[in-house]
Amino acid sequence: MQDSQINNVIKILRRELAVGTMPIVSHLAADQQNPFVILISTLLSLRTKDEVTAVAAERLLEIAATPEEMVGIPLARIEKAIYPVGFYHVKARTIHSVCRELIGRFDSQVPANLDDLLSIKGVGRKTANLVV
User: What is the pTM of this model?
Assistant: First the structure.
């Protein structure tokens, strides 16, 4: 195979692979106007396949669509809703904790400020950047 053929193959692969590879959370961030949905979905997405994240987020948000509703349900119910998300026990506790902080510190609103988001235990830079 000649260099020009290899370069053409690489160009085609780059173009084809660029289509449809956007993570589910990026789609949600682009489509959703609700920062709480984006926050919860992003927390679930870490080290989890997009297909699993999408189904788990939908199941959980049908049960509890606000921080108050989330805190009002037992941890075991959150775990059941998000299973088979990776580390679902830890993520359920994180979601519960994040929701308590949203209620206590931010009047149940997801902060629009990056520094405020990063101040919430369990919210890292990737999550904060997607939410803002």
Answer: 0.79
